[in-house]
User: Which sequence fits this backbone?
């Protein structure tokens, strides 16, 4: 399926690929609704096949959004991925609020809603989604707008954090026990919290992306004589320490004569930053590389450790004397910190890479070590300490989901990113089934037999101790593998840091030069008006 997603997206573009994902989602969930409501009674294997179709629709949408975003924001790919993944992390709690407020106890109707609502939202969003392969003119017009890319990222961050805090408060105060009217108020409040997202496109360059070009229609060229252009170049050279006439790009930033054919304002490399990652590996080349298997194993081990804790949380709380309400609170806490971790490990690695050249793979070592320590802690933690365990583990688990797509795009390239990204996600499926389901289930049953507890329930601190100790041992291995990956990619990120610095200098120079041109332009028009008034 990953190869098919890549092939369609590469040939048809993100919009068609997204539409295919929406069709699969709608068809799959509609068929599940029909089967659940008794319209037809398929055999079990048909239900499984329908579920595969429905869930793969989400994979098409997720892969398309991630692949398009890392291409559109090559120097902010971690931030973009973190935002997208954080919304995935918070979506489960949001859908739970929606179900409790509007559909409970009609689960079948809610199944139909899940099939229709995301498709409607996706259809509305499709016209606004595309890959922009050049630097837009709006990126150089920072003096004309206050809505920079960073500020729009900030709006999305604010929405996710606010939603997360609201969902945590709902869990703490027991929203499932509120009356119907209060649940409706919570639903409306959740919708209101999402409204700031509508402000993101404001003053972002318009619906039609325009390349950063000087065109023959620009009046500035008609008003600036050649000697004035030379004066501006000398001023810029004095400001930035560059030789006059040398902008560090392949084409001149300013044209000496008016009416010439349009030329790029910045060179090709500056228009498509991120070229310090020159390697574009095919899926076969990717799977033949050591870096792929290092990332595969680290991601698979650490995310399966998180799923081990989350999937068995009910039995973990029960075995240590906790209540059902405590379990619900821990699930909500893990989910909110999962979303927070996705935001943090999208933003922090991106900023530190831009400021100091810290490799993104360094933070993979951090989250792997955090997962290892919290797994060892969980082996001996009391029921009161499980809240802190859920806090740290949810944060580290979310961090993996932000780091993996960004690392895959940087280490293996963007040309085959969709396929390589989907192949890496298989690590979670394999690890979760092996560790969180088979191993944890087997060891739990062994503890039940050893204790002789009734009702197939294990009570005691040691019910999951061996499971968590094995997970901690695997975590030590993943931390070692992440450290090896850090060592192998340090040169790659050093080159990327140099490219980021050079690109930001060129962008600043182009923006300042644009401002000087506008100043001369305004001065020329003022002089013409003064002469006309004298006449």
Assistant:
């Amino acid at each position: 399926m990953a190869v098919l997603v890549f092939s369609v997206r590469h040939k048809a573009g993100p919009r068609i690929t997204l539409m295919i994902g929406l069709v699969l989602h709608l068809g799959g969930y509609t068929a599940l609704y029909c089967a659940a409501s008794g319209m037809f009674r398929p055999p079990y294997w048909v239900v499984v096949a329908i579920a595969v179709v429905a869930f793969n629709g989400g994979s098409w949408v997720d892969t398309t959004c991630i692949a398009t975003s890392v291409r559109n924001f090559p120097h902010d790919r971690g931030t973009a991925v973190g935002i997208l993944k954080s919304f995935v992390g918070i979506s489960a709690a949001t859908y739970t609020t929606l179900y409790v407020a509007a559909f409970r106890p009609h689960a079948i109707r809610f199944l139909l809603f899940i099939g229709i609502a995301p498709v409607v939202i996706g259809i509305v969003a499709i016209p606004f989604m595309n890959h922009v392969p050049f630097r837009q003119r709006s990126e150089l017009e920072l003096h004309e707008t206050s809505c920079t890319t960073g500020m729009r990222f900030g709006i999305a961050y604010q929405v996710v954090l606010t939603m997360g805090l609201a969902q945590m408060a709902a869990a703490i105060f027991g929203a499932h026990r509120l009356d119907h009217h209060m649940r409706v108020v919570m639903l409306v409040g959740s919708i209101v919290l999402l409204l700031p997202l509508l402000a993101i496109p404001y003053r972002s360059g318009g619906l039609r992306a325009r390349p950063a070009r000087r065109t023959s229609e620009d009046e500035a060229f008609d008003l600036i004589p050649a000697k004035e252009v030379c004066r501006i170049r000398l001023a810029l050279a004095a400001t930035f320490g560059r030789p006059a006439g040398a902008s560090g790009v392949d084409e001149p930033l300013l044209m000496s004569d008016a009416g010439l054919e349009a030329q790029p304002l910045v060179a090709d490399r500056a228009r498509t930053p991120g070229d310090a990652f020159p390697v574009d590996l095919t899926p076969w080349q990717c799977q033949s590389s050591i870096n792929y298997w290092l990332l595969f194993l680290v991601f698979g081990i650490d995310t399966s450790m998180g799923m081990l804790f989350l999937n068995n949380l009910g039995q973990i709380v029960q075995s240590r004397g906790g209540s059902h309400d405590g379990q619900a609170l821990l699930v909500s806490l893990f989910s909110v910190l999962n979303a927070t971790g996705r935001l943090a490990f999208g933003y922090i690695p991106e900023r530190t890479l831009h400021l100091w050249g810290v490799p993104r793979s360094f933070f993979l070592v951090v989250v792997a070590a955090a997962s290892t320590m919290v797994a060892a802690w969980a082996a001996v933690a009391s029921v009161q300490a499980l809240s802190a365990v859920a806090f740290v583990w949810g944060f580290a688990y979310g961090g993996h989901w932000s780091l993996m797509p960004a690392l895959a795009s940087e280490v293996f390239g963007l040309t085959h990113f969709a396929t390589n990204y989907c192949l890496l996600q298989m690590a979670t499926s394999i690890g979760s089934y092996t560790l969180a389901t088979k191993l944890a289930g087997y060891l739990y049953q062994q503890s039940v037999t050893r204790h002789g507890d009734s009702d197939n329930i294990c009570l005691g601190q040691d019910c999951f101790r061996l499971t968590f100790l094995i997970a901690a041992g695997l975590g030590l291995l993943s931390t070692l593998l992440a450290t090896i990956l850090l060592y192998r990619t340090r040169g790659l990120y050093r080159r990327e840091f140099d490219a980021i610095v050079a690109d930001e200098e060129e962008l600043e120079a182009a923006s300042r030069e644009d401002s000087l041109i506008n100043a001369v332009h305004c001065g020329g028009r003022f002089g013409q008006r003064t002469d006309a008034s004298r006449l």
